[in-house]
C-alpha cells in the first residue's frame, strides 16, 4: 500500500547500475504489527 | 563492556504514528536501561505529494486518496488523542501538508554531522506541533539554522540533492525488508517490530537481545 519504489525498477541516479539488494532478509517479527501509516492511511 | 544494541528505524516525517512510536520507543529504551544506538532511515509515505499542497491534511487524504472526509477526521481525532497520551500536542489544523523528500535529505545531512536524532525530532515537532513547513528548501534551512547548522551549506546540500542517494538507499532497504508501513524498527539486524508499540514491547525486545548477546559472549 505504501509507495516506496519498486525494487525491481528502482535505479540510483545517473543511470548507475543498481546495487544488488537481498530480498526477504528474514527478520523475526516481535509482537503482532502495531499501528502504522501506509499510503494514505494511518 | 556490552556493545550497544543497534536499532534501525524506518519512518516518515509526515507520519503521525512515527512520532508517537518514537516516544514509545524512547520510553522503552529508558525502561531497558542499556546502551542503544539508533539510526533513522527514510520512508516516503506519499512521494507524489506536491511541495506546496494547498490544503489541510484532511483535504489531502480526502481529495488525493479518496478517503471519506468523516473517516479522515475521525482518524485524525483518534491519532491526536493517542499523541496527547504520550505528551505530544498534534495540531492538524496547522499542519502544512507537503512532500518530505527534502526533509529526509536534511536528516541525512544532520546524520553526516553526527546529529541525526536532533534533526529528526525537530522536523517531527515542526510538522505536527508547530505548523512549520518541512517541504520547502528555505524553510528547512531555517529549521536547520535554529539548530546552529550552517544555513548556507544546508541550502547548497538540499538544492543539489547531495543526500538524495542516501534517501534512495534507505528506500531500497525498506523494500528488501518488506516494510509496507511505518514506523518500523529493526533491532540488532534481525528482529523486526512494526508500528507504534507499547514501550513494554521495546523494553522486552531489547532485554531479550541483551541476554542473547551476553550468552553469545560468555
CATH architecture of chain B: 3-Layer(aba) Sandwich
Poorly predicted runs of chain A are: 1-24
Order of SSEs of chain B: EHEHHHHHHHEEH
Q: Whole-number radius of gyration of chain A?
A: 14 Å
Helix content of chain B: 40-55%
Main structural class of chain A = little secondary structure
Question: What is the strand tally of chain B?
Answer: 4
Number of strands of chain A: 1
Helix content of chain A: under 10%
Shape of chain B: globular
State the end-to-end CA separation of chain B: 12 Å
- Compute the separation of the termini of chain A in Å: 11 Å
Quick take:
The complex is a heterodimer of chains A (42) and B (218). Chain A is low in regular secondary structure. Helices cover 0% and strands 5% of the residues of chain A.
Written description of the protein model:
The complex is a heterodimer of chains A (42) and B (218). Chain A has 42 residues and is mostly loops. Chain A has no helices and one strand. Chain A is elongated. The N and C termini of chain A lie close together (11 Å). The relative contact order of chain A is 0.30. Mean pLDDT of chain A is 59; it is low at 1-24. Chain B is an alpha+beta fold. Chain B is built from nine helices and four strands; from the N terminus they run βαβαααααααββα. Classes of the chains: A little secondary structure (42), B alpha+beta (218). Chain A binds chain B through residues 1-7, 10, 12-13, 19, 21-31, 33-42, and chain B through 12, 15-18, 20-21, 43-48, 61, 64-65, 67, 75, 79, 82, 161, 164-165, 168-169, 171-184, 186-187, 190-198, 201, 204-205.
Amino acid at each position: 500500500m505504501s509507495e516506496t519504489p519498486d525494487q525491481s525498477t528502482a535505479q540510483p541516479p545517473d543511470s548507475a547500475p543498481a546495487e544488488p539488494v537481498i530480498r526477504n532478509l528474514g527478520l523475526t517479527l516481535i509482537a503482532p504489527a502495531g499501528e502504522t501509516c501506509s499510503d494514505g492511511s494511518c | 563492556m556490552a556493545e550497544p544494541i543497534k536499532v534501525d528505524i524506518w519512518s516518515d516525517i509526515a507520519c503521525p504514528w512515527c512520532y508517537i512510536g518514537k516516544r514509545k520507543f524512547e520510553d522503552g529504551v529508558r525502561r531497558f536501561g542499556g546502551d542503544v544506538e539508533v539510526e533513522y532511515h527514510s520512508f516516503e509515505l506519499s512521494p507524489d505529494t506536491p511541495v506546496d499542497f494547498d490544503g489541510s491534511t484532511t483535504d489531502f487524504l480526502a481529495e488525493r486518496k479518496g478517503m471519506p472526509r468523516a473517516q479522515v477526521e475521525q482518524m485524525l481525532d483518534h491519532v491526536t488523542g493517542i499523541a496527547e497520551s504520550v505528551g505530544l500536542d498534534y495540531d492538524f489544523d496547522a499542519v502544512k501538508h507537503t512532500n518530505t523528500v527534502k526533509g529526509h535529505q536534511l536528516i541525512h545531512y544532520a546524520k553526516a554531522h553526527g546529529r541525526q536524532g536532533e534533526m529528526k525530532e525537530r522536523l517531527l515537532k515542526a510538522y505536527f506541533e508547530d505548523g512549520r513547513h518541512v517541504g520547502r528548501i528555505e524553510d528547512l534551512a531555517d529549521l536547520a539554522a535554529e539548530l546552529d547548522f550552517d544555513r548556507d551549506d544546508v541550502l547548497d546540500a538540499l538544492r543539489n540533492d547531495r543526500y538524495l542517494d542516501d534517501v534512495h538507499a534507505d528506500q531500497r532497504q525498506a523494500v528488501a525488508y518488506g516494510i509496507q508501513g511505518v514506523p518500523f524498527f529493526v533491532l540488532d539486524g534481525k528482529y523486526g517490530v512494526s508500528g507504534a508499540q507499547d514501550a513494554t514491547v521495546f523494553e522486552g525486545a531489547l532485554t531479550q537481545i541483551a541476554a542473547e548477546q551476553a550468552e553469545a559472549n560468555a
